[in-house]
UniProtKB/TrEMBL annotation:
Protein name: Transcriptase
Lineage: Eukaryota, Viridiplantae, Streptophyta, Embryophyta, Tracheophyta
Native source organism of the sequence: Panicum miliaceum
Positions of region (Disordered): 49-72
Amino acid sequence: MRMLRWFCGHTRRDRVRNEVIRDRVGVAPIEEKLTQHRLRWFGHVQRRSPEAPAPMRSGVLKQAENVKRGRGRPKLTWDESVKRDLKEWNISKEVALDRSAWRLAIHVPEDP
């Protein structure tokens, strides 16, 4: 955001909102870009052959058994975040097997 503000000629003291700056420059929100990159990697993992070496076999990372968990809320795992992203974007896992359809499904336009 600092670079985008400099590009537009604004400083933090001008009190211009981040959304306004992103709209002027034509940049997508960072949350959507992070989700897009996470789903792109998920597509790579899904398209791997079943004979691929562990730990990435058929898109599921192996989780250790009988490990003592810490106190409090469990950490958000990569699998859980991908499931959440697929649900939010209304995409099924089977689309990942077709690379061109997957690219279209996870594309985030630069101009929001």
